[in-house]
Amino acid sequence: MPDAAESRENDTATAAVASLPSQTDSVTTVTHIAVLDDEVDITQLLAGYLHSHGFRVSQLHSGRALMDLMRADPPELVLLDLGLPGEDGFVIARQLREHFHCGLVIVTGRGDPVDKVVGLEIGADDYVTKPFDLRELVARIKAVLRRLTPPAPPPAVLAVAPPAERTRLRFAGWELDTAARRLLAPDGKEVVLTTGEFDLLAVFARHPGRVLSRDFLLENTRGREAAPFDRTVDVLVGRLRKKLGTDAGEQSFIKSVRGAGYLFVPDVELV
């Protein structure tokens, strides 16, 4: 039986959710999202708003509960708060990236640029600081989900489809399959990439030998322009260089061009 304080807290969260505009989106009707935050009122608020947009939501309050959910009923995307009592949110984010495939959006009150860089380096697809606009958060969630799962062509198109488009890009022994969204190393082993890393490498591979500005790269991977001091692209480039087994020196596939952006060096073959 809930006590009076808990009832008031639930009533407050319910009222806050009820006051929000209710909208639905057929694209998100079956998408499962996990919300991990130690504050019950925040998880209830987010769950109510996300439900109104057609998402299925699991509310969690500890890293252990999230890991149990990932094994039993894995969500397509996780909203992760970093400030969990007695737990390191960055460690949880790293565990998600190492052991599971899902979208990851960090939602936290820690707005220090260093925290943001660390979160992106670990593999977060986006980083949102509190307080935030709920509509913007949903827009960011949908953007991550679109990058995770490219839309399938409609059945009518499949019936009369022309020969399949070539979606594999080969460079320096590597193979990037843009349809299957996977990267194969020269030895045939798959290299796991985050959504942001894959999208950035795909843009580079489609524009070899051209200097690409940070604005161009962000627009073609995140749908936005670079804000002042935005290091998202730089962080992703650094992670790609490590996974491709190259550094920033002469052997790097991705060259830095001072004051201009980045250049993808290898010749690329479409197969």
TrEMBL record:
Residues annotated as domain Response regulatory: 32-145
Chain segments carrying region Disordered: 1-20
DNA-binding feature ranges: 166-266
Record's GO cellular component terms: cytosol; protein-DNA complex
Keyword set, alphabetical order: Cytoplasm, DNA-binding, Phosphoprotein, Transcription, Transcription regulation, Two-component regulatory system
Main location: cytoplasm
Compositional bias annotation for Basic and acidic residues: 1-11
Name of a matching Pfam family: Response_reg
Subcellular location: Cytoplasm
Domain OmpR/PhoB-type: 166-266
A single GO molecular function term of this UniProt record: phosphorelay response regulator activity
Record PTM 4-aspartylphosphate, positions in chain: D81
Gene Ontology BP, a term: regulation of DNA-templated transcription
InterPro entries hit by this protein: CheY-like_superfamily, OmpR/PhoB-type_DNA-bd, Sig_transdc_resp-reg_C-effctor, Sig_transdc_resp-reg_receiver, WalR-like, WH-like_DNA-bd_sf
Protein name: DNA-binding response OmpR family regulator
Organism: Caldimonas thermodepolymerans
